[in-house]
């Protein structure tokens, strides 16, 4: 086994606890790489790296520095790729598996932060908090009843994806007195009940929900899941909230559903392009509350993700199977490579 292991991350803000934990080990060296440097310089550093810790958001990592089969071919020492978040859009997991590279993420670490944001968006849209703030700061001569919204208590929340964040959202929604239903084809009805939601099929979710909140990953089965047909099947006056990933919902179709008043509002934390253009049609609607992929970006969320990410890297370098291994089928190959 090599005496010193190199853990690298690209230059970007991260809670300082990550660097502190990695640097505590005398047998581990932290390399911070600026991908704005010359390609020659970046490649020279990447070729020495054992573990690469990188952001999962496509708009934050240039294509040539995402983990692809091309990058893997040029980085013979690389044995593990770690995502800084729950997603891993910048990592080709299949290519990593073929190359014997373990992929780990931070699934569930910031679930509380995401759930609080999801409920915050529901409150802001339902009670028209953001809209009221804008009106109060810009004009006079209106009545309070013009800005009347709806309580969350007693309403039906439909959750798509009852994993870490979805379950945490269900728990908070239950505390608000909401009826929580959920669609998740990977869980049994009993598992969903234990996570605070009643299992329903796709059609029921669309037809019965007053608010739908997305917490599923983006993959081939969920891309454009919420299209014009899906929005048309939602209850008239229902609301749509997402803290999942841009691309799971069709933004043009959502604009149509909102502008025709079929849906009464939306809380959007994620976008197809991040940040969205200033002239994006959805940003022109008063019943849209828009944020910039910040659901997991609280001080506590960032601290937890950074600290647990660093500890997981230490764990995997010691040959211990991590709890958030995305491609478990690679583990035996990884152990052999890790021992060289």
Automatic annotation (TrEMBL):
InterPro entries: D-2-hydroxyacid_DH, D-isomer_2_OHA_DH_cat_dom, D-isomer_DH_CS, D-isomer_DH_NAD-bd, NAD(P)-bd_dom_sf. Residues 20-327 form the D-isomer specific 2-hydroxyacid dehydrogenase catalytic domain. Residues 119-295 form the D-isomer specific 2-hydroxyacid dehydrogenase NAD-binding domain. Keywords: NAD, Oxidoreductase. GO terms for molecular function: NAD binding; oxidoreductase activity, acting on the CH-OH group of donors, NAD or NADP as acceptor. The keyword Oxidoreductase applies. It holds the Pfam family 2-Hacid_dh_C. Belongs to the D-isomer specific 2-hydroxyacid dehydrogenase family. This is D-3-phosphoglycerate dehydrogenase.
